[in-house]
Write a sequence for this structure.
């Protein structure tokens, strides 16, 4: 790590001191490395034999001393094909990268692992942040592990499991009537008054460094060949910015070639500021007045990094699309029954967005498509879809399974149970 | 894989056909390999460069053709030290192996991955099993991935998240008044009537082969040096049997030395058949009349493999201990606030059992102790412990953190917030 650089105006800052937003233009800082020097000194073979964790990419992470790493044992998350689901959705090379297998059950663990590590190195004793849910849980866990106090403000509508989880790590949890923006205003005020470290999205430059490891892992798992399309459910959009930054860095190092995936941002119809700004050809989003979706992670009315997300979507020839909660629920069910995936609503929205873009022809049948499932469906237990359990009376036996149709999925062939086996129903005559 | 062998009477069976219990003595079958031949043909260097997944141990897994593997991308689960918690519990080399990071959020994924893979190879079209909760969820997920129908019977008291999760994979879920034993009787009857494959614990020989990979991973992560003590929360006990089998196999291959860890089985005071039998010097357990504990996975009144578990505890100079639900709840909180761990109740019971044995002197201060957290605390959301979130009224600011004592933990120094930071309280004068 050499310095920080404002993503908006290019101003430089010292990385050895606490930095929030650029004082000149209020833009977010990005961490810069001496990639020129590393191009010769750091071949990708340095990775060989290292642990399958995000820390294997240590040369491209901002940690000063590896003794300081705060870790809950982050494994590399699996990337694998989902052929049955892909067949139903008309995509023959559809894969999921399942971020639900990280500590605290979401991709937010990446940002928190690196962010808390750096906060510790900078001497921070209390971290405060607003959250749509999972970031709060992640920072609370890594803060506990590091012995750093954590204060979290989240919408009162945040799923119950996530509220409880965050509190279980000893964090102070405040519930706010309103959105993550309202929570953010309270955190800003509290940080000013109490001298806490403001770890809001992009207000500190290290969370994104953790999230970019999604891009490193994806590249390495694909043997340094990027996919054609990356579908990313977009709330704050930091994961998307992080992956784009990761690919730029890998390209500068010569670890990957020139191929650039199209990035697709998927949002919920009830909170789609990026989609609106993208199609209106704006450079920034407008605050969405009343974010409404059960995909809690997508309830971000005005992402601080909107201008970067929009730039990436355009530069990569990607797009943005919003999907309804109803369709997202259907997709959770479809992915569960066809592939055994326990998607979070955000991840399911991603698959639904991909499906709609496939229908429109924006995604080709044989393109290599990777959808990020950003967290475990377990965190949204009340939203998991399935046939209700049957309570057997005493003396009652388990019946033979009758042919039973699952609800049809939007013109797709429904799932049926036939010969005691779950199958895709034959085409109607 | 060469054949199956009855763990009770030693009778052999053909591994290429469906086998449940030994027809001669009703004992469970164990899978056998030609370890003699492998000792020369298979050095541990075969693992080098392979993916960090349970399938890296493929030479010691019963899969016939690797094309048939049913996987949801099982990462190797992290093993790491928990020094702050260890300090509070008086153990200076205390580690956790966190099985909550597997697909479906528990170690049951290991058994289901291998079990469903083998069921598919054997031509099974419908799997049925009783479960205390997590096994049902895991088999449902892997069944969905394989296109095999799954029918699950579980106690009506199984945590809500797990019920919903299991149903979300398309499995048929039946709720039973009573314990997993009552559920097991119904499944047995249904399998006889409908021709389904009975995947009850140890009634098919492949689940244990998946679970033994916990032992392989532990050994490899410790650089082929086993720990002094392994603490395992014990319901059916298959994980413990699996690890013991794993170490026997590694020893036969010459991959590890002669050091044998002491195995400790931890159960809940409300369902402790193994503990009772162990201390009564019995060879088998008696059915526990009314299993009562919030640690759902420990509600197994009469494990089929009890005689093996008891034998392993004795041969390894280990022991068995039961702990109260109240102490288990305290431990969930302590692990969350000190280490950022989201333990399931079973895992927390394991830490509490270790702590009590340390107090008694059975575990030494400087011994290398590994506790298995068998699943994610997210699956027991209603049991997560923490300060309740504070709902802010509109216009209310986030207050400065006051000094606030967490409840003291059994004579240990309580946690306090001091200078906005979570600390272990100083010793009382």
């Amino acid at each position: 790590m050499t310095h920080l650089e404002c993503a908006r105006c290019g101003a430089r800052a010292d990385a050895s001191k606490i930095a929030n937003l650029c004082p000149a233009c209020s833009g977010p800082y990005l961490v810069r490395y001496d990639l020129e020097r590393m191009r010769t000194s750091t071949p990708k073979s340095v990775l060989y034999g290292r642990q399958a964790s995000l820390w294997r990419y240590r040369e491209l992470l901002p940690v000063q001393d590896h003794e300081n790493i705060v870790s809950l044992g982050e494994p590399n998350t699996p990337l694998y094909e989902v052929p049955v689901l892909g067949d139903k959705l008309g995509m023959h090379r559809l894969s999921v990268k399942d971020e639900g297998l990280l500590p605290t059950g979401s991709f937010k663990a990446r940002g928190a692992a690196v962010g808390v590590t750096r906060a510790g190195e900078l001497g921070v004793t209390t971290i405060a942040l607003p959250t749509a849910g999972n970031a709060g849980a992640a920072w609370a866990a890594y803060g506990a592990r590091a012995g750093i106090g954590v204060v979290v403000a989240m919408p009162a509508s945040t799923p119950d499991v996530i509220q409880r989880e965050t509190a279980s790590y000893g964090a102070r949890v405040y519930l706010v009537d309103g959105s993550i923006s309202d929570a953010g205003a309270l955190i800003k005020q509290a940080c000013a008054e109490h001298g806490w470290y403001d770890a809001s999205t992009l207000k500190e430059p290290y969370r994104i460094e953790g999230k970019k490891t999604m891009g490193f892992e994806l590249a390495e798992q694909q043997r340094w060949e990027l996919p054609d399309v990356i579908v990313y459910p977009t709330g704050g959009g930091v994961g998307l910015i992080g992956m784009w930054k990761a690919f730029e860095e890998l390209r500068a190092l010569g670890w990957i070639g020139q191929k650039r995936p199209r990035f697709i941002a998927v949002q919920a119809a009830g909170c789609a500021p990026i989609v609106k700004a993208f199609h209106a050809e704006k450079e920034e989003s407008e605050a969405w007045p009343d974010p409404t979706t059960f995909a809690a992670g997508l309830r971000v009315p005005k992402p601080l990094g909107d201008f970067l997300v929009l730039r990436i979507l355009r530069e990569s020839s990607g797009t943005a699309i919003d999907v309804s909660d109803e369709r997202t629920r259907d997709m959770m069910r479809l992915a569960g029954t066809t592939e055994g995936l326990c998607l979070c609503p955000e991840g399911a929205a991603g698959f639904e967005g991909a499906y709609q873009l496939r229908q429109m022809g924006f995604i080709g049948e044989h393109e290599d498509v990777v959808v990020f499932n950003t967290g475990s469906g377990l965190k949204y237990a009340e939203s998991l879809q399935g046939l209700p359990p049957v309570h057997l009376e005493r003396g009652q036996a388990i019946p033979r399974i009758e042919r039973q149709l699952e609800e049809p999925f939007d013109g797709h062939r429904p799932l049926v149970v036939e010969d005691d086996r779950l199958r895709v129903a034959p085409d109607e005559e």
